[in-house]
């Protein structure tokens, strides 16, 4: 039971950017980027030891500016990309860059946890994403419409050989095919107000979750854009982030500026609504009877847990890439909370 | 003299009495015992004399003596007269007896004579009768022969007679003649002469039967003719079932004509009248005559005929009922319910006659079924009409709300609109109840059917109409809340507010009032489960809550859109030094004030947390500014960025978590608190997404102070506004490149100026 208690880590600065280290499948590792206008910004590489419940951190300096968005290279665990704002001469410029984590940290990060905070290292810049010699704009298209159009979020679809991207601007979600750079679907008025985040179901290629300022989380089938498949309305303020669990897509994590993180179990629209069908034949009679009881329970979408460890708006939530039962959430005041899926539910899904 | 006379008479009487042994009563008895009393029974002359001699003087003795002599004389004379009188009487009696004796002797002689005469007479009479006997037998025989001959003559004349009758078309006569002769002919048909007559007769009668059949089949012949024909044919021993069939077939033609006639009727009442007058009464007539013809006495024929009639009527009535139902279904306009009920009543009443006549057929049941179905359909129509009316009212209200308010910024009279809306809906419900009530009126025949007594009242009217309507009102309300557009523009927020108040009113009073009204009018006897008032009330309450939440949300959205735009579209880094409060903030305050006015028209004030005097506001703002400065001072020291978050965290530990889009209570303060919470939280989130220059921060400070000045009065807990605004300023400071806050006094001056 103690294992289920949340682990809290505090950053000195305010922070919005959180990412799991996607390429890392052994260790539970998260990247957090800070936002500070007046001090050097940092990227915290946070390792979590599942057994001892201990957090190890490595701080990397990010001199370029305050980090709004961070994401890890899915192939090389030492490469990451950030979106950042740079303020100089009372001008704010937004840019993006790809970075490499310095060598020393890669090699022996487990052995030198003590002095890592003292000798902070600087990220190695690989390239700026600004269409210079190192990188080139492969494709672009412009969204046409009235007024100032701003994309609030974008997401790769893991399906279709990664040829699709979904973007959100204002209340609309659009799907793009990057081979033709044409719009393939458009969900008008997906939310009553701004759409804040998107995520694709990793197992069902047409399923998409979105969240927004109307406090709702909606699940869409992109083949039918008129009606959401499901709508959740559990948060009491804007929902900033929504994430599907990578392995068990009935688990959906949402973070909101009402300082809550909610874990929902969307059984009815997951890829494994009848999770036990596969092993049916192997079961002995006795187990059968037990299973009967289980299957008799109606499959209900439910809220599994509401996590209230945060005291400020939660802008980012992320599942661990190594342990599918573990997730982190980050609130604006720099508090990172690592939580686990309740054990009862975990066994329920697994067995 | 008289006295003496009386005394004498008494004496005589006394003697007689004595003689006859009648004792005098009491007093005189004593006297009688006296032996000296000369008139007594025990008179002793010796004693009397001695006594007299002893007691009386000589003179007295003399007197007694004379007296006695005189008395003796008188007695003697009396005795003599008596004897004479009685003697005469006795003589005459003896005479009479003698005379009687003579007379009796004479009479005896006469009697003897008479007896002799009588014997003679008897003898004579016996002799006469014996002589006449032979003759009498002969005469009897002769008269028998005479009758037989007459019968035979009748038989021989029968064919001719029948022909003549037929020529004169006196069919009844012919049939009766034939009936008389038939059995005889049957009996003696082995004799050639009779057989000839029989065949003749049969041929003639067959011809007659044909004629009758023809007449029978003739469409134009009247029912009276028909029944005559049938009667004749029956007595001709035609097979009854064929006749039944033919009769019914004949009737079918006429009834079908009635049915086709019905289709033309325009008015429902006229339609039913025509149906009753034409079809039903003809069917009754038909059934009655049929029954009198075929079902007179219980036999297997009668049973068969009865069955035929039942199936026939069932078949025909099927068509009729279908027609009626179709017609009734066309009766859609809800206004003239009384007409419909009257028509139904008439329809139902008229069906009683045939169903009484032919108990086997299910006229009554079918009729009742139709009435019940029509009533149910009617209820459904009324429900639809009520719903439409409600929608219409809502449209009116929408128009009233949307109407441009030219004279100044006068708020629309929400109270009046609400009263108008609920009043007109209530009136409509009442009028519908009144119309529906016609179905159960006492003078309507079908109102005492079990359906109308029980199910119609409870399931139909109460559940199907009233409860369903209330539910639909709630449903309509809810639909406004989750309309797919939900951009706020789809439903005017004021309508939400109005509907929420309406639902709340329903919860507190209207529902129970309507249901009580319904229960009173429709005292249902059946105790099937009905939706309790509490369920409806809670439904209405939750609807009101949802609507109000939606109102708060959409109003909050309006204000927060304004704030968001104002934050997002400005370049906060290069902005100039603040000189006054931004216009947006004034708009926000204005908007919230107008919302306050609107809500105040419909909802009560509600409770706020204690202090709200002007002085408290002033001290509060001073306190807040001092605290603000304290916090900034902390964050300026570059070495301690941690402290800031620590401090704010500590502060948050002690303040309650604020749920932004939470449910509100049914009062003004709570509603406005909700709206302000939403707006300020949006403000906060927007500020966090921007980067500020020094003057940008200062502008935010000014704006926040302005809001602080004006918004505290609307909310239940001014601490809340303060907290949120405080956080806005804090966040702005964090997002500021050059955080140099403005002097509190300057801020106050700017705010008071603007």
Helix fraction of chain B by DSSP (H/I, runs of at least 4): over 70%
**How far apart are the first and last residues' alpha carbons of chain B, in Å?**
163 Å
Quaternary structure annotation: heterodimer
- Low-confidence residue ranges of chain B: 24-29, 485-489, 611-645
Following the backbone from N to C, one meets helices and strands of chain A in this order, namely EEEEEEEEHEEEEEEEEEEEEEHEEEEH
Please, what is the average pLDDT of chain A? Answer: 78
User: What ranges of chain A have pLDDT less than 50 throughout 5 or more consecutive residues?
Assistant: 107-118, 275-296
Radius of gyration of chain A: 21 Å
Q: Which strand order does the major sheet of chain A show?
A: 2-3-4-5-9
How would you describe the overall organization of this protein?
The complex is a heterodimer of chains A (about 350) and B (about 750). Chain A has a domain at about 5-135. In chain A, the strands form six sheets. Chain A has a five-stranded mixed beta sheet, with no helix packed on it. Chain A has a four-stranded antiparallel beta sheet with strand order 1-25-24-23, with no helix packed on it. Chain A has a four-stranded antiparallel beta sheet with strand order 6-7-8-10, with no helix packed on it. Chain A has about 350 residues and is mainly beta. Chain A is built from three helices and 25 strands. With about 750 residues, chain B is mostly helical. Chain B has three domains: about 180-375; about 385-550, no CATH class; about 570-754, no CATH class. The model of chain B is unreliable at about 25-30, about 485-490 and about 610-645 (pLDDT under 50). Chain B: It is found in: Golgi apparatus, trans-Golgi network; Recycling endosome. Chain B: It comes from Pyxicephalus adspersus. Chain B: This is Vacuolar protein sorting-associated protein 51 homolog. Chain B: Its main location: Golgi.
């Amino acid at each position: 039971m103690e294992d289920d208690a949340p682990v809290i880590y505090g950053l000195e600065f305010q922070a919005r950017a959180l990412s799991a280290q996607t390429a890392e499948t052994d260790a539970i590792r998260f990247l957090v980027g800070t936002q500070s206008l007046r001090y050097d910004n940092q990227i915290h590489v946070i390792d979590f030891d599942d057994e001892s419940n201990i957090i190890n951190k490595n701080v990397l300096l990010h001199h370029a500016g305050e980090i709004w968005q961070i994401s890890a290279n899915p192939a090389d665990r030492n490469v990451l990309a950030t979106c950042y704002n740079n303020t100089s001469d009372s001008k704010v410029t937004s840019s993006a860059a790809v970075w490499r984590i310095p060598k020393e940290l890669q090699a022996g990060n487990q052995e030198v946890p003590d002095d890592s905070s003292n000798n902070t290292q600087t990220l190695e810049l690989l390239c700026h994403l600004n269409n210079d010699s190192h990188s080139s704009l492969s494709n672009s298209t412009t969204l046409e419409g009235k007024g100032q159009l701003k994309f609030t979020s974008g997401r790769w679809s893991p399906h279709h050989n990664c040829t699709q991207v979904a973007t959100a601007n204002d209340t609309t979600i659009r799907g793009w095919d990057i081979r033709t750079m044409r719009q393939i679907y458009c969900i008008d008025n997906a939310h009553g107000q701004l759409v804040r985040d998107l995520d694709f179901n990793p197992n069902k290629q047409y399923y998409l979750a979105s969240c927004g300022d109307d406090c709702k989380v909606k699940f869409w089938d992109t083949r039918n854009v008129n009606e959401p498949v499901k709508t959740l309305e559990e948060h009491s303020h804007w929902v900033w982030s929504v994430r599907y669990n990578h392995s068990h897509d009935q688990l959906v994590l949402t973070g909101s500026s009402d300082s809550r993180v909610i874990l929902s179990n969307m059984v009815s629209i997951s890829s494994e609504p009848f999770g036990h069908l596969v092993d049916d034949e192997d079961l002995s009679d006795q187990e059968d009877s037990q299973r009967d009881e289980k299957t008799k329970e109606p499959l209900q979408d439910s809220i599994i847990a509401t996590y209230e460890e945060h005291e400020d708006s939660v802008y980012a939530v992320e599942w661990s890439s190594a342990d599918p039962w573990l997730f982190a959430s980050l609130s604006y005041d720099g508090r990172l909370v690592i939580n686990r899926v309740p054990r009862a539910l975990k066994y329920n899904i697994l067995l | 003299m008289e006295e003496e006379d009386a005394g004498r008479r008494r004496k005589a009487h006394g003697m007689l009495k004595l003689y006859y042994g009648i004792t005098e009563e009491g007093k005189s008895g004593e006297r009688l015992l006296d032996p000296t009393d000369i008139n007594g029974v025990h008179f002793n002359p010796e004693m009397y004399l001695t006594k007299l001699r002893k007691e009386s003087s000589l003179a007295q003795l003399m007197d007694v003596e004379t007296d006695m002599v005189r008395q003796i004389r008188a007695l003697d004379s009396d005795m003599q007269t008596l004897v004479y009188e009685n003697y005469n009487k006795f003589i005459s009696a003896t005479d009479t007896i003698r005379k009687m004796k003579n007379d009796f002797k004479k009479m005896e002689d006469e009697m003897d004579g008479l007896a002799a005469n009588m014997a003679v007479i008897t003898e004579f009479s016996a002799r006469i009768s014996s002589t006449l006997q032979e003759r009498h037998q002969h005469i009897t025989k002769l008269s028998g022969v005479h009758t037989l001959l007459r019968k035979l003559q009748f038989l021989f004349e029968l064919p001719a007679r029948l022909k003549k009758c037929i020529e004169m078309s006196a069919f009844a006569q012919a049939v009766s003649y034939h009936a008389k002769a038939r059995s005889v002919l049957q009996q003696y048909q082995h004799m050639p002469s009779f057989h000839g007559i029989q065949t003749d007769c049969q041929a003639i009668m067959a011809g007659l039967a044909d004629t009758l059949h023809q007449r029978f089949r003739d469409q134009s012949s009247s029912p009276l003719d028909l029944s005559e024909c049938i009667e004749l044919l029956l007595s001709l021993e035609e097979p009854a079932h064929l006749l039944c069939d033919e009769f019914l077939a004949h009737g079918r033609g006429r009834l079908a004509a009635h049915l086709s006639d019905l289709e033309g009727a325009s008015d429902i009442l006229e339609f039913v009248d025509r149906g009753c007058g034409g079809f039903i009464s003809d069917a009754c007539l038909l059934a009655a005559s049929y029954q009198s013809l075929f079902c007179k006495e219980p036999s297997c024929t009668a049973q068969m005929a009865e069955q035929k009639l039942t199936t026939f009527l069932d078949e025909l009535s099927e068509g009729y009922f279908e027609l009626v139902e179709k017609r009734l279904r066309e009766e859609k306009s809800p206004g003239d319910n009384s007409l419909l009920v009257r028509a139904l009543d008439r329809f139902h009443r008229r069906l009683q006659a045939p169903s009484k006549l032919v108990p086997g057929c299910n006229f009554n049941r079918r009729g009742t079924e139709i009435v019940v179905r029509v009533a149910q359909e009617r209820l459904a129509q009324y429900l639809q009409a009520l719903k439409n009316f409600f929608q219409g009212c809502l449209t009116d209200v929408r128009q009233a709300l949307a109407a441009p308010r030219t004279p100044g910024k006068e708020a629309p009279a929400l109270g009046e609109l609400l009263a108008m809306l609920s009043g007109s809906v209530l009136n409509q419900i009442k009028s519908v109840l009144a119309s529906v009530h016609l179905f159960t009126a006492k003078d309507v025949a079908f109102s005492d059917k079990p359906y109308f007594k029980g199910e119609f009242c409870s399931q139909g009217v109460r559940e199907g109409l009233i409860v369903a309507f209330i539910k639909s009102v709630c449903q309509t309300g809810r639909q406004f809340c989750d309309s797919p557009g939900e951009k706020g523009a789809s439903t005017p927020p004021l309508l939400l507010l109005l509907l929420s108040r309406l639902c709340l009113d329903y919860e507190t009073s209207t529902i129970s009032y309507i249901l009580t009204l319904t229960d009173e009018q429709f005292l249902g006897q059946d105790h099937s489960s009905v939706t309790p008032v509490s369920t409806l009330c809670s439904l209405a309450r939750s609807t009101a809550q949802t609507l109000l939440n939606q109102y708060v949300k959409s109003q909050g959205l309006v204000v927060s859109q304004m704030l968001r735009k104002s934050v997002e579209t400005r370049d906060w880094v290069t902005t100039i030094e603040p000189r006054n409060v931004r216009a947006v903030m004034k708009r926000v305050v204005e908007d919230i004030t107008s919302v306050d006015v609107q809500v105040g028209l419909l909802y009560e004030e509600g409770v706020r947390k204690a202090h709200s005097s002007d002085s408290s506001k002033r001290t509060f703002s001073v306190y807040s500014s001092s605290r603000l400065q304290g916090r900034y001072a902390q964050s300026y020291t570059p070495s301690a960025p941690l402290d800031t978050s620590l401090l704010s965290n500590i502060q948050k530990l002690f303040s309650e978590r604020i749920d932004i889009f939470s449910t509100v209570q049914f009062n003004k303060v709570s509603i406005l608190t909700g709206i302000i919470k939403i707006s300020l939280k949006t403000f906060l989130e927007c500020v966090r997404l921007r980067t500020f220059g020094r003057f940008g921060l200062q502008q935010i400070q000014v704006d926040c102070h302005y809001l602080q000045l004006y918004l505290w009065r609307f909310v239940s807990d001014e601490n809340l506004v303060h907290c949120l605004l405080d956080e806005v300023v804090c966040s702005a400071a964090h997002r500021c490149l050059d955080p140099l806050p403005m002097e509190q006094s300057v801020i106050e001056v700017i705010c008071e100026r603007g």
